[in-house]
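Hi all, posting the design record for the shared folder.

TITLE: backbone redesign
STEP: 1 of 1
STRUCTURE INPUT:
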C-alpha cells in the first residue's frame, strides 16, 4: 500500500490511524487469509505512530506491534532499504508537479521484483539480531 500525504497537510496520529485501517483493508483485499494468520507491524517511534489514537487503531485491526528500540534508525527498513533505493532512482531528476513525482514513484515500485522486498526483510532480521546482541546500542549503518 502506498499513500501520499496531500501538500500542506500534517502527518498526525489521526491520519496514521486511518492509514492503519486502510492497510488492514488492503491486506484483506490483496492477501486473502493473511489477517487470520496475524500481521506483525513494524514501525518507528515517531509521535504520530505512538499516539493513543494510532495505538487504538493498531489494536482494533488486530495487528501485533513489534516494538522499536529508541533511536534505532537502523531498524527502519524504509530508511535503509526502500527509500535509499528510491532516492538513488530519483537523484538528478526534475519534476514540474506533484503528479509527476507520484507517477515516477508508482512506476518505480512496480518495477521492483518480489525479491527486492524480501531482501529488505532479511536485512531487517540481521539488523534486529545485531541490535539485540548490542543490547539496543546504536548500530552503524552498513
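Okay, here is what came back for every position:
SEQUENCE:
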Amino acid at each position: 500500500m502506498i499513500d501520499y500525504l496531500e501538500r500542506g497537510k500534517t502527518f498526525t496520529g489521526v491520519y496514521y490511524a486511518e492509514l492503519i485501517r486502510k492497510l488492514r483493508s488492503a491486506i484483506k483485499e490483496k492477501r486473502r487469509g493473511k489477517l487470520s494468520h496475524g500481521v506483525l507491524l513494524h514501525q518507528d517511534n515517531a509521535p504520530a505512530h505512538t499516539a493513543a489514537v494510532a495505538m487504538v487503531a493498531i489494536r482494533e485491526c488486530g495487528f501485533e506491534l513489534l516494538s522499536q528500540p529508541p533511536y534505532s534508525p537502523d531498524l527502519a527498513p524504509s530508511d535503509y532499504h526502500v527509500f535509499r533505493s528510491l532516492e538513488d532512482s530519483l537523484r538528478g531528476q526534475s519534476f514540474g508537479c506533484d503528479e509527476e513525482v507520484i507517477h515516477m514513484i508508482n512506476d518505480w515500485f512496480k518495477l521492483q521484483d518480489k525479491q527486492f522486498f524480501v531482501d529488505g526483510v532479511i536485512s531487517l532480521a540481521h539488523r534486529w539480531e545485531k541490535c539485540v546482541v548490542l543490547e539496543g546500542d546504536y548500530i552503524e549503518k552498513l
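COMMENT: Helices lie at 13-30, 34-37, 47-50, 52-60, 77-90, 98-111, 114-133.
Let me know if anyone wants the other runs.
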